[in-house]
Amino acid sequence: MTLSEYLKTMDKERLEAFANRCGTSVGQLRQVAYGNRRASAGLAVSLDRETGGVIACESQRPDIDWAYLRHKTA
């Protein structure tokens, strides 16, 4: 599922709450969803977290080596 498809499943209230949980605005989410802006690394992580992995950070920022971060041990 793409971010734009995901956002279309929500009514205005749910979309506002989702944006707040992601630490951004609905407008910024739409800009990212439609390819007008690139998600920051932080927003990509928030989208992954808040969607339970439906919108994976890898899909928003394929230029980042997420595999390294996901498998890093302390």
Question: Can you describe this structure?
Answer:
With 74 residues, this protein is mainly α. The protein has one domain (3-71): 434 Repressor (Amino-terminal Domain). It is built from six helices and no strands. It has helices at residues 3-8, 12-22, 26-33, 41-50, 57-60, 66-71. The longest helix has 11 residues, at 12-22. The chain is globular and about 35 Å long. The mean pLDDT is 94.
Order of helices and strands: HHHHHH
CATH architecture: Orthogonal Bundle
Helix content: 55-70%
Let me know the number of strands. Answer: 0
Number of helices: 6
Largest sheet: none
Beta-strand portion reads under 5%
The CATH topology assignment is 434 Repressor (Amino-terminal Domain)
How far apart are the first and last residues' alpha carbons, in Å? 32 Å
